[in-house]
Specification:
With 922 residues, this protein is mostly beta strands. 12% of the residues lie in helices and 44% in strands. The strands form 10 sheets. The protein has a 22-stranded antiparallel barrel. Strands 3-9-10-7-8 form a 5-stranded mixed sheet. Strands 36, 37, 38 and 41 form a 4-stranded antiparallel sheet that branches. β4 and β5 (94-97) form a beta hairpin. α4 packs antiparallel against α5 and α6 (447-466) runs antiparallel to α7 (468-486).
Amino acid sequence: MKKSLWLISAGAMALGSSVPVAWAQDSGTAVDPESVNIIVTATRRASPLSDVPIAVSAVTAQAMQNSGATDIRALNQLAPSLLLSSTGTEANASARIRGIGTVGDNPGLESSVAVFIDGVYRSRTGAGLNELGEIERVEVLRGPQGTLFGRNASAGLINIISKAPEFKLAGKAEITYGNYDYWRLAGRITGPVSDQLALSLDGVWSKRDGFYDLVNASGAKVGETNDRDRYFLRGQALFEPNDALSIRLIGDYTHRDESCCGAAYIETRERRPVAGGGYSTAPFNRIAAILAGQGSTFPVDPYDRNLHITAGRDYVSKLKDWGISGEINYDLGGAKLTSITAYRNYKSQDYGDYDYSGADLLYRDPNTYRQFRTFTQEVRAQGSAFGEVLDWLVGGYYAHEKLALEDNIRFGADYGRFAACRLMAGASVNSNLTAAQLGACGSGLATQALISGTQAQLNAGLTPAVGATQASIISTGLGNGLRALAAIPSGTGDVASLYHQKSENWALFTHNIVHITRQLDLTLGLRYTHESKRFSADFNNNNATCAALQASGLSSIATNPLLRNTSAGTLAGGILTLGCLGNGSTGLNALDLNDKITDGEFSGTAVLSWKPIDELLVYGSYSKGYKAGGYNLDRFQLGSTGLNPVPAVFAPRTNTDVTSLRFAAEKVDAFEVGLKYSQPKWSANIAAFRQEFKNFQLNTFNGTSFVVQNINGCDGALTAARTCASGDVGPGLISQGVELELSATPVRNVRLSGGFTYARAKFANRLVGSGDGTVPLDPALFLLPGSINSQAPEAVTTVSASWTPPLGSNGLSALFYVDGRMSSDFNTGSDLFPEKRQDGYAVFNARVGIRGPQQRWAVEFWGQNIFNQDYTQVAFSSPLQSSSPSTSTTGQFALGAPMANQLISAYLAEPRTYGVTLRGSF
């Protein structure tokens, strides 16, 4: 498959297609409609794209509209270096540029790819998955950013510019209907109130049936999920009392009340290694057998999109996101002042079934939510000096954010029996129990009898080694532990687990262009960022079973050197781990966690650019990027330092464990050389890059909890403890490659664009989990060394073509449009389990229509993913659904694992959609 995609990419490039470019401009700036050169503000200066010595792609409103875009996910079709995906909720969106990004499931982590809308920083990528309304364009800046935009970013930036109010009465409206009973209404009205004041109002409402059917155990439909029910409003005022002063006020509100997001099983087999490599399939998967006894069913084909989850645990996704901002621009003559002040309030509630199965194991309760309240202030001054030899810019930025998270994870009615049965089945090559026994164990018909039988077997096995008396004591303790585990009441867990993080950030930055000669420029940028974060957490957890288990003798059995590697020691550790899942215990209620981190860092850029002729720009650059550290907002990792001689869950936690939730700032050194050539009818851009990341913030779900580590490489060999000296620590992840962008208007009314990116985002061969080399790489990440990062296809090609021929002489025209994204293979899981690998694929969108004179009206028929390509956005380890962490993946066979039976679920990409849009304007 990879070879075929390389051929597709090569063929596409040979046809002269290129990266996403836009034939766009700032409001009020005239442009030749047939020109491929555009005006962007990526350097905070209005410049033709061909004159900007940084890697930036721009997509106009027309290009977004043709592709069917309603949020930034559609940029995947138009920007080959960008990949956007979402997981358990749309609040958990993740953006990657050149194979680098931050997994979005943990709200404590900011994204390596920043999102700005109208100059206002959105603290998490998920905010960009809302409706965008009427936009002017979207700019995608690749590589570290910080000397031009308020908030710094280590991998890149998505800059969305909405359409400003106009001093001419105008309006537009559109109505769309598609399959899945999709309705979308959108409109905009704008015009003057006076010669100095203009207003505008945008609105969007959309509703759609779900992409998945929820079915019961017999396969009958009982509901649906991944639907759409949302609306968006944005009002603006533009006040221009004179030519020197402009004030723009924006207020927006987004509301969502949807069911999201379901996941389908893509791997349910139990695999066994075979001599010479590969694997065979066991007669049954012992985990699936337990779940089947508890009523779960498993689809033959996940792309049938039939999901079976616990009745009454439907996925719920609610969102209220609003904000106000004011941008003031004042031209003093010798300098221009800009001030952007904003406040945003983002609150999402996402809850429901958390195990993605028909068994009632785990769920998030309706009180779960996350909220960001963010105030930002940016001030810039820019101008020219020394006879326009110097274009200077200085600025300051301040942000104050309050993050509140209530994350209530509770055990369902089947959890206790599932946990006990999983442990009794064992993790050796053959299950200790038959499929029939496991089903009866899961259902409760034989749970107690099997516990008694397991206790007896343990007693018989221990007696020769420790004597009858000790064997009886140990086996009785283990049997009682299994009984307590199996009897955990439904609803046990978090009553109210609250996390708070207050962040304050201020920065000073400057970005200056020195015109050494008419053809040679030197750009120098510098930024100092100061960051402080204060963390606190309060827990209300009712898991009394955990407290009792920790107070029993199970910990002594699990840590006894004579028993540690025996079935008794393993079982004792398993009972504690599953009975106290994620440190869930009444012991948490006495904690008062508080901590603070403070950091300051310089970052910046230097670019040398040369224009030997007007049509050609050559440049080379170095950039140093930075992304703040923070806290892992997950009680599951409380007390887990990576150096624990005994698992943290074996004992109650204390307030001193709070530092274990910290992670350090991410840093990058980036190098780039590029060439831009532009003619009136075609252009070509080439860039080669290398980005070296230290303390790369990796967030991965290991089947139980979210693990956050700072990934670094080691130049020398690792010690026996899998660490290295601080002097040997180097970059842990390096992304390098080339990007090619081409665009053309070969004949009138025909436009071609597209692009090709080869990016190899590869981990170092030897990795550690801290910047000083003292923390080993987490065992869940054992596949990372020497491998390509997740969500990082090495080769991506995008193509788009539009033809708008006139129809007769009465002003009518037609629209024929197609775009496509062709991607090579990549792994979708941050732990790189081979079961989570996605084969290469191609996705195409198309649109045909008829448009009236001056495009005053249009009728368009459209399709997205027109060939109904099946592919996975993100695959993950289904929560708790393996026999042990060491028997999860076939990748562990090389380490001696006797089998692998982790069930794998996936958030699937959207299926084919199609419909018709009617559009009118005046």
